[in-house]
Amino acid sequence: KQEVTQIPAALSVPEGENLVLNCSFTDSAIYNLQWFRQDPGKGLTSLLLIQSSQREQTSGRLNASLDKSSGRSTLYIAASQPGDSATYLCAVRFQKLVFGTGTRLLVSP
Amino acid sequence: ETGVTQSPTHLIKTRGQQVTLRCSSQSGHNTVSWYQQALGQGPQFIFQYYREEENGRGNFPPRFSGLQFPNYSSELNVNALELDDSALYLCASSLGGLAGNTGELFFGEGSRLTVL
Question: Tell me, what's the pLDDT at A17?
Answer without folding.
Answer: 96
